[in-house]
User: Fold these one by one.
Assistant:
Number 1:
Amino acid sequence: MHHPSPVTHDIQHATMVWGLLVGMTLCSFYLSTQLAGLRLMSAILTLAILKAAWIAFDYMGLRRTQLGWRLAMGLWLAMVASAIALSCFLPG
Amino acid sequence: MNFASQRVAKPYFIGALALFAGQIIFGLIAGMQYLDGSFLFPAFPFSVIRTVHTNLLIVWLLMAFMGAAYYIVPEEAQTELHSPRLALLTFWVFLIAGVLTILGYLFVPYSQLAAMTGNAILPTMGRGYLEQPLPTKIGIVLVALSLLFNVTMTLAKGRKTSLNIVLVAGLWGLALLFLPAFYFPVDTVKASYSWWWVVHGWVEGDWELILSALLGFILVRMTGVDREIIEKWMYIIIAMTLISGIIGIGHHYYYTGAPEYWIWLGSIFSAMEPVPFLMLVVFAVRMLISRRHEYPNHAALLWAIGTPVMAFLGAGFWGFMITLAPVQYYTHGTNFTAAHGHLAFFGAYAMVSLSIISYAMPHLRGRMANSLRAQRWEMTGFWIMVISMFVIALALTGAGIVTVFLQRMGEHPISFMGVQYQERVFFWIREVAGFTFFSGLVAYLTSFFVGGDPVAAHGATVPRGR
Amino acid sequence: MDTETLTRADTTATQPLPGDFAIWVFIFAELTVFGILFTAYAFARESHLALFNMEQRLLDRQTALANTLLLITSSYAMVRSVLAIRADQIARCIRWLLLAMGLGCGFVVLKIREFAHDATLGITLSHNLFDMFYLSLTFFHFMHVILGLTILASVTLRALGGHYNASSHTGVESAGAYWHMVDLLWVILFALVYVIH
Ligand code: HEM
Ligand code: HEM
Ligand SMILES: [Fe+2]
């Protein structure tokens, strides 16, 4: 089986993450200008958290490090997620 | 010690220790007056004793910082001090001005002192810690300028290490942050702003830079850990200090007439102020664990590890307890604050001064480390002082809590003096612990006079110029 | 097993943290400050919903979107510069660093314009609770962008001085981790303050 070289693989991966982040940003922006309501808000919530998690674990290099650091970041994301959730589930 | 001019640090250290002893004696008198209101009254009222106690604290800490600077800057810059004679002259000016000021407090009524010293021309007197008459304040500025000139010139011609740059920058900040002391408007809100710029700006901002530079220096020397690692820690600790501490000043603005947003900003940012103190602990412990050799001065090691721990407890933990706006609403100005003030000032700035003295004095006296017997005296002094101070803080915290409940929360609040009476058991504990603190100080000072063979270096001393 | 499979294909193995231990302590301290700020914002919004909703509508959402894209892309450039230095491509690493900084500067310019505009609208810390949070959060973050750019600049200078190579480049990784943090915080700020209303 053919393996791409490790650097090429990393570049492809980073580019994919970038594409996803941009996509999600545009998506949440678009939704927020067009619609309203609870369902939209939970969609945005999910997007925002996913986006944050992506950056943290991929760009920051936490994806494959020791459990302690991933746990710490997980806790932080949970904290932020609750802040966002609290904001989302209030009617606009 | 590598440079002859570092010797000017010695009188500064000795002067600092003498004033420290004086501070404690006046603290004991003030504590006594809490128990017996007529003690030494009317010759020396409480307000005067208290002023002397706190002013001696500030003066001896400044003196120790200056001594530390004259010791460290040449060593780090790898060159002689620009002018040792100026440094020595400055010491005598500072000491004499300090002593005269204290005598003025003690023997001239404060209002008369103000009239005598030109307070009418530029009013600056009266705010806590900044009670000094105008000529003394100007003297402090001149002394600081002389120090800054001397160390900056030394730094300019020598090796520029990050540690040295941070230390000298910290000293510049110390001097600049003193300037609001000259601005004392009639408007009480504005007056309180400029007061906190000095007091908070010092202890929760600029002095933390000095604190981490001094600890960094001692740890570089005693552990042999790579300078780069220590400097990196120093930088992030400083960054965290400034990020939390600058806006954290808002914890003094609640309910004072300052805009309401300070309730949010002050609470949130000051709640983060313990973090740099915690980082100091992690830093010191990691450096000790990864040390490259055994340093023969165990007493200095004990001080260097004790300082961040006590600073974290006093500033970080006790500070956090009273820093959120809803808590300050009840605890403001109670003995809870005094508990925090004592433990933080002692744990951070008194102890770091004693650390650098413990490290440098043997060198200044021509040896690597004192005899084991002397070190035992010193370490005994360490433990007695630390434990006594802890008891003092607990007693004051107890008194603070009683005030909150009896005077500030209940259906039928009791008057101020009524509450004081209810709290006298805590004031007794404080005074007894104060005397044991004093005995610890005596043990500590004794260590300087205990003889015995100085400990020889175990071969693996820190190489010159590391 | 050849080394390539060992280092890359083995996805289950844990890898050491990129960059310096100390920078990570710092990053987590910073994340905590912002975490507290975000939580405080959410609670304040909960108790002043009408005010927040009204004020949020006035924000310049287009600029915020542009800023988000700028930072995300800048972060991508940062990833590329770390990958480049790992592959010992110093010139490429520097080019990506410069791009990352350029995009960061773009953020700064847009943000300054936004602040200037806010000032003309009479938005101040004392104006109301939302403005207090909005200004403190965005200004505090803005200062972090400046700090991040300073760190990137110093790393770029060191890279130009030939300090980094494939086997020693902790500085680049540390700067990268910090820069990603700045980005991460903005992404949440964007969602929380500009989008959700
Ligand atoms: C080494 C560092 C510190 C020292 C030496 C120190 C010292 C003091 C002193 C002496 C006071 C009383 C001032 C007065 O006369 O009214 C004070 C007040 C206060 N400190 Fe600190 N402090 C330090 C760090 C901190 C930290 C880190 C926090 C917060 C986490 C904090 C929170 C407070 C608060 C809220 C007050 C006001 C108390 C009141 O007005 O009742 N301090 N501090
Ligand atoms: C060891 C015995 C000590 C005793 C008995 C003592 C006693 C006192 C007393 C009675 C006060 C006045 C409190 C008031 O205004 O109600 C005071 C204030 C103060 N003392 Fe001490 N003290 C001692 C040691 C120290 C030490 C070692 C330090 C610092 C290194 C220190 C720092 C301060 C400060 C900063 C204040 C002002 C606190 C405030 O206003 O909240 N004291 N002390
Ligand atoms: Fe403060």
Number 2:
Amino acid sequence: MNKFPGESHDARRRGPRDRGDEAREDSEARLCDCAAQGLGKRPGNRAGLGKLAGIASIGAAAAGALPAAASDWGRINLPRGVTNVSTRIYALHMMAFWVCVCIGVVVFGVMIWSLIFHRKSRGAVPDVTLLHNTKVEVVWTAIPVLILVGMAIPAARLLVRINNDTNSRLSIRVNGFQWGWQYKYVGTNVSVISKLSMSSDAARMLDSGIDVDRVPDYLLNVDHQLVVPVGEKIRLLITSVDVVHSWWVPDLGVKKDAIPGFINQASFIINPSKTGVYRGQCTELCGRDHAFMPIVVRAVTPAAFRAWLKRKEAAEKEASARAPASTSAAVST
Amino acid sequence: MDQPYESTAHADHEHKPHGWRRWVFATNHKDIGTMYLIFAGVMFFLGGAAAMAIRAQLFKSGMELFDPGVYNSLVTMHALLMIFGAVMPAWVGLANWMIPMQIGAPDMALPRLNNLSFWILPFAGTLLVSSFFVPGGAPAGGWTMYPPLMEQFGASFPMVVFAIHLLGISSILGAINIVVTIMNLRAPGMSLLRMPLFVWAWLITAYLLIAVMPVLAGAVTMLLTDHFFGTSFFNAAGGGSPVMFMHIFWFFGHPEVYILILPAFGVISEIIPTFSRKPLFGYEAMVYATASIAFLSFIVWGHHMFTVGMPVAAQLFFMLSTMLIAVPTGVKVFNWTATMWRGSLSFEPPMLFAVAFLFLFTIGGFSGLMLALVPADYQYHGTYFVVAHFHYVLVPGAVFAIIGAIYYWLPKWSGRMYDMRLAKWHFWLSVISVNVLFFPQHFLGLAGMPRRIADYAPQFTDWNMVSSIGGFVFGASQLLFPYIIWRCVRAGKPAEARPWDGARGLEWELPSPAPYHSWQTPPSEAMLAHGAEH
Ligand SMILES: [Cu+2]
């Protein structure tokens, strides 16, 4: 197996239940995310993950005490994200929000004024001559139109910008399936099948008895991540092999449906300084395990990416030489 | 309903069948209206039970109660029951009760059709609910029923399709009856522009129903033939397109949401003037705004599909048409506000619900405006932000309007007053809990929580707990409603013909309870003038 420098060798084991594929969990994800966030697995559990205990128990005792939820009350807004587009979307969102707040202050203010000062119990006498007033009605039709035009122009500009999928450096085919994602790097033989990480998969079972607060990135972690370079325009060619899915990573500002029979495009450029791991989920109801097909994008420097791709290509070649009916063929579920 | 009929001399026409025949063979608009409302109430509590189960499952991170397949069934059934079982029949029930009384007619124009359109419902409802008990369980593809997912469900799939056919037939027949009644049975002198706004709203809604229910029926029929007869309308492998289903579904689906909300606009336009003791501001503008909203609802369906990969030009068109809806909707909100302005306000339960509607529906409108901006929608789409948005327009929107309407007209129907104190309790519990329930869902969606998921990452737990607590309180407080109605009907104090001193409109010229055959002689011009003070 090919890893980034400094990452441990293949940690390959059987999943807690046989899903018909080789359920694996790259230690790359665990090393990076769990250590960085100070989270660990609870050693041992009923679902037969005992073997994981050895690795997971490193630091688990200390990590378990960290209150993961302490700051979650503050998670109430869109992320600014790590692409130019996601930042612009955030700005558009905040602009729309403040426009709504301003309209709300005026409209609700008038309503509340009436509710307080025009009450019968205060002796208010109805002004029954107030039936209509053309001047006022024209004004409160025209002003919203102007506000809407003011909002529509930046939105339209951004829309056109987002949908420009030309001049990409790298194309990746994204295949949604029940329940996971397959990523194929166009022009190479590299294909990655990305499913819910084994620790999350075990913990999500009914009556698993596993404390999900101790599972690293519960439901937002995968066995194999999508690795991309920062600073380069990446084009996704998104489709599905079964039902409709939707590929969403909030930090990238990308959401696009994966529809059987259609190939959708989406593109993004991650800001060069923003290497890191970005998480998302399927956002179109796709059956029983819709909640359990997360997306994890690891953004690395272009050099690290090329090195990774090269090693991955070599490994694929080696694997297909050994087994002609290669596992890199299309997903079958 | 045994009081002498005072306003005219036709008391001998009070004959009505007794026992079960009165209901099974019902042709009276009030009896049928009552049955519609009871059916809607039963469905509301069944759909509510599903909602409580959903909120219990989502109380915290980690799979707690249901298998994800069962959870998806609950989500699907909650939507179908609430939309087709509760809100739509409740509006038809209110139309049955109120339209003849408000336009000066003795009954609906087509009473036997009326009977048929009601009695289809219990069968459709039973078919829908019983799909829970067939092998494979209820359909779990969401109320949107997108293929190919929808075709993965077993015996329940055709059951739901047939239930939707039946519900659609019922709605179409009911809508035809309403149109015919309004067009033909108005009292002499009641021109279209003298009609109460509830009647106007329903006239427009009825046309929407006739236009789009066949579209839904066509869409689900194509699903059915794809699945059982080898067609490929939506099957990509056979040359069809799953996206076409989305287009057809939302061509129905967007007018459908206005079918749920336009009658609410009508009700609010009745209640606010009454308790402001002042005629509605801008009557004609209200009528034209309602009509424009109805027209626009046919050309905005693409805003449900901004992420499916439409051409940029199409996305732009749907963004602009959707934003345009804010104009007539704004006009309505401003007119309601202007109606309260310099009025003489009092806050009986119907008014409380109407004021809450005004505030909370407007919040739903704000999030709707944000959702119309395509780039922002890329982030909102399919998340709890959308769930918060449409629940704000449908729960404190449509459902509050239905509750307000019942509190408004119940004295007229039953001839009795209900317990105001208890009804105010019902209001305050509902209005506080509904915000605790739905407001945090904006946060959850923005923070990245997709909708329709059976379990979520731990960082979403805090606001989900708040939302669930709000949900449980909201659910429990709705139990007060049937109790208040029951107490009113059984033992309420007698109500006057005009229990609200500011109430105008023909229905208040009738005694309380209203006579079995509402207007056997047409109302006089004086009554009409008194009623329609626009
Ligand atoms: Cu999916």
Number 3:
Amino acid sequence: MDWIDILLKVVFAFLMVMVVMTMAGYSVLAERKIASWIQGRVGPNRTALPGLSSIPVLGPMLVKMGIWQPLADGVKFLFKEDPIPGHVKKFYYVLAPMISLAPALITMVVLPFGVYYVDGQAMPLVLANVDIGILFILAVSSLGVYGIVIGGWAANSKYPFYGGIRSSAQMISYELAMGMSILPVLMWANGPAGGLGDLTLYNVVTSQQAVWLVFWMPVPAFVFLVSLFAETNRMPFDAPESETELVGGFHTEYGSFKFGLYFVAEYAHMIIGSAVFTLLFLGGWQLFPTFGILPDWVANPWAGWGWIGSVLSVLVFIGKLLFFIVFFIWVRWTLPRFRYDQIMNLGWKYLVPIALACIFIYALIIAGWDLMVAVENTPAEVVQPDGQVVTQQEDLITH
Amino acid sequence: MQDFFFYLFSALTVLSALLVVVNPNAVNGAMYMILSFIGMAVLFLLLDAFFLAVLQVLVYAGAVMVLFLFIIMLLDVERASKVRPKALSTAAALVGFGLLVVGLGYLFLGGGSVTPAELSAAPEIPMQDGGTNPMEFATASRSFGYGLFTKYMLPFQVTGFLLLIAMMGVIVLSKRLGPSGQEEPTTEAVK
Amino acid sequence: MAKVVERKPLSFLEKTYIPQIVGGLTITLKNVFRPKVTLQYPEERPPIPQGYRGIPALVKDPHGREKCVSCQLCEFVCPPKAIRITPGEIAEGSENEHVEKAPEDFEINMLRCIYCGLCQEVCPEEAIFLQGDFNSLVGTTREEFVNHKDKLYELGGTRPDEHYKWDKKKEAAEQAAAGGHH
Ligand code: SF4
Ligand code: SF4
């Protein structure tokens, strides 16, 4: 690899981190705004930037929308005094918030967020189009729990500790349901939909051209969504930091910038989670599903538009993402918190069996489909990571 | 570059593995263990075995170690760390260590190591590009699936069966506590 | 007698919670589009009801005479001892000479005041009022919260007077001096 290549990747990675962090900051704003609206309030509408806010019409409007609030929040978190309580385990106390943010930022590497065309051949816009995309995301985001567990433990007082324990149990339980709810999607993407035995998210997205999987697999989608709420510690499942019982849960002893890191990490996880849901079940960056009757261009109308098309596909993707972030927030301000035993019941006694049943049923359907359509004789087109197209006789099944 | 990373991460893996054993504090030990798992995953990555690397992180670092931490935190770590191992278990550990050293020595010196050619022959998967890369078998997740469901079908099923037995055993053991027993152990049991 | 309340067992749909969740979501969604109840405080002010007890302040009568005669009743009655008065005499030759006394200084410590209104009630001169308006109290030192005499008059302004008690008294005295014949 050339050093220019490496430099380019670094620049792209940096940009992506910036975008995700900005989005995380603004989801905090969205959270506050939507919470206010739901409760009949207005939300942050005062923070003004000296120069920009005096632009005649636009300035006050932006101030009213609270556009500068995240900036002010960030500055506040940065400059507040950062005390370390005397009774904590210092090393882990400092380490924990970083551990909780890092996985969210690492998972972005394999997230495809758009599409571009080289000689009419669609390529994903992604930092690393590795074979094991979805597994990579599951693996790395499962490390995020350490941030919470260690934070709760290092704080060395009982409420954070309860929070840490709860979250470790909760995360392990729902990871299982989450992983299993993805399996039907991967089977579908690599079976009838014509993919070829890999786990890239790009493959999953392209396989949804005909029908978004949320329509075809509503139950796995639902299981995945519920597990996503649990994994990100969002409202009906925010037992690890339930304010009413545990003060602040695992971050009770944290203040200023370290608390800010936890806070942003939660939103970063939320963004990544929404992105994964969009890719797996909502057709990624595709505009509309064709349902097999509409012409193909409905899914990717920008196929021939060059870079404008790429930008549009990214925008569509971000649009779907935003919908989910709003949905997360909306649910948070609607539902009360589950009790801890209810969370465990729901995870083990309902979601896991449902996910297992889904795997079974969809496996049957897909196998039947395969038998009828006789995939083994149709040539499959494979796009290698380096862009060349290999047409091969699919002989895995007859082998 | 690759060499540099290899040495870096193998040093990390070995060092943190050593610290797992030496460190008296259980939580520190668990953290070093995670570190060593991650180092191992990176070594797999350097071998282009993405699938294995990710599984390493997903299963060991992501799930098993969380459970470990969970248990360590629930138990009284301070007291447990003071218990000295019995003479018998020390002896057993020494014997195990000796066997390990002998085995490694045999692999390194005695020509017991497998050549790449033999390795690539293992799952006999139809290659897309004629199999120019001798380690290709490790890179694609589908070659794993293929191997597991053809050549290694029996071991795969037996392993699954073993796990099932273990799971049932744990459930039976934890149920014997009766209705007064804590509900906590069930979470581990199902795992 | 204990009454047994029959509860219908949950139907399957209810057990999944989904209809209820959707119902909740629609309610919150509707709420988003309701008019907001927030009052944008410094720009908008709430209507202040009659008899509202605001900041205690001293008032002058329409002729510009300070009404307080520093009788110190309010200082005495104030439950948290928020008032401190330094009494003073009105210099001879002044227009209000006949009133004899006026406060040299009048302090109300707003960190202590509990807005009970007793000072207003007790004042024989109707000189102190809890204004029917509120000012937000902001400051960084304790001194800033102590309202002195000039500040108190500034806050209080003038109030219409019904009695002109001292003027009447002065007139009566002048008439007597002029050889009145009652
Ligand atoms: S304000 Fe009224 S009660 Fe208080 S000293 Fe003055 S005259 Fe007396
Ligand atoms: S309102 Fe009450 S507390 Fe305040 S100054 Fe008057 S008497 Fe004192």
Number 4:
Amino acid sequence: MDIGAYSFGDTQRNPDGSLGSTAQAISNLFEAIKHADASGLDYFGIGEHHTTTMPASSPGALISAAAAATKHITLGSAASIISTDDPVRIYQQFATADIISGGGRVEITAGRGSSVETFPLFGFDLQDYDELYEQKLDLLMSINDSASENITWSGTTRPALAHLAVVPRPAQNKLPIWLATGGNAASSARAGRLGLPVSYGIIGGAPHRFAPLAELYRKSGAAAGHALQTLKVSVAALGLVAPSTKEAVERFYPGWYNLNIEMGRLRGWPKPDKRAFDAQAAAPGAYYVGSPDEIAERIVHLHGYLGHMRHFLQSDIGGLPQEHFLESITLLATEVKPRVERLLAQK
Amino acid sequence: MNTLEGARLAPQATIGILGAGRVGTAIARLALAAGYRVKLATSKPAEENSLIIEIVTPGAEAVDASEAAAADLVIVAIPLHKFKDLDSHALSGKIVVDAMNYWSATDGEIPDFVNTALTSSEVVAAFLSASHVLKSFNHIGYHEMEPDALPAATGERRALAIAGDNSAAKTVLRGFIEHIGFDAVDAGDLAAGRHFEPGSEIFNGRFNASELNGLLHAVRLSN
Ligand SMILES: NC(=O)c1ccc[n+]([C@@H]2O[C@H](COP(=O)([O-])OP(=O)(O)OC[C@H]3O[C@@H](n4cnc5c(N)ncnc54)[C@H](OP(=O)(O)O)[C@@H]3O)[C@@H](O)[C@H]2O)c1
């Protein structure tokens, strides 16, 4: 089982509550990725998010830099909002990063994004939401599956490509392309049909309720003729690891509170409720906040339902102090991962 | 009007659900558990959804939208910006429960909902002018629906608000809601749905019937 982290960037809060700089947030994130690699973490996912509090807007740029500055860790977007980007450009950037990584360490995760800020930002119309996603995914896969540099493609959401070169090719034969979904059944079926690995973003509720979706994914994949070993599942969730569960909760809650105040303003949510947090933070809730023992057990418990091959956590939200972020990464790599492997071996 | 006769659903009545996403499938599972016949549809032909429905809502039938629209009670759980794709003709005379929300963060800015003093359900009702449109289910997260549903005898169970202009239709919906695991609280006419739209205290809070009544009473007084 791969253990990892992901981040949208986390702008720090000044003592007076005002926001620090978005530049500092990116520096912190870059430091965390290098630290994750040095600690032996398996995976780091980045962005794409476009807000002042979460400014990791450019996974391609950050992953290229990280590819040069790390040795072992797998790097991916989490996720690239392909609907409002150009798949040709995404592919070129990630293929470049893959080469810089030495080959085989860079992945793309394709998503729609949970909010719609990229539509006005890049000049797209929300009326085209589904069409944009479907066509851009098709183009991204066509480029990846192509036997040569020259791509021919046509659709309505982007100018056609008539035997045009899309370069470079990645160092690995193809880039792994994951499909990100938040639990819509049709997306699981689609991922299965396309034979793409699927990444579940589980942000609330009991994660094992995704079991029927994983089953649907695998059955749809098998029905479309894809081999079972290519049908991989990963799980992205909120969480933080600290030496004790009590410390983990104390460290994570303030940032969670800040984030929910901000989301509440945007989305009309009520004031965050500590009881709702506590319910999610304890097993079998969706927040993986706890000691290495507890988190390892919960990951393995979920594995019994989903059979996932990667579990990765978003910790740095709402101004999490950088030292707590780094310590959580260390613990994930050096304490959680060995426990998960031991528990899985005993099963 | 057939569907309103006697103002309650037969125990094996058919529930049609438009939208087989997070909300639609959660309500479908609750309705199946309560013994109803459930027909689910999306904008796609039925056969494209059959595997999804077999695994995610075992026991429900994948149908075309027109067949779901013919059910005894119809619940609409599609992205709100697609409401004009609904077939107003097929839904005429029907009790239609609008479970949708206008959320500019995920729906974007939709002129139909921004440039108006009406609630989102009134905008939908104006489009479905021959249906009995009710508002409910919009103020509970999809992932809370099944954990929070409890049998009637349990006492302090979660309550859902109902807004609508037709009281017989509301009685039908009340029976359905109570049967699948929640208390139901009449919030008043369809316009009163604003009290549990996004941004309100009721939206996304978790309340039993007396708390919900109290909150509705308080907002009415302050208006
Ligand atoms: N998520 C929540 O917790 C929650 C809670 C309460 C209320 N709501 C509201 O409920 C609505 C649905 O939310 P959701 O989260 O369930 O969305 P979702 O998971 O995206 O599902 C939407 C469903 O609607 C289908 N659909 C789209 N156009 C349709 C049409 N013209 N006719 C029939 N089906 C159609 C989609 O399938 P195809 O695209 O394949 O047709 C999909 O199955 C939204 O308005 C939301 O604001 C959400």
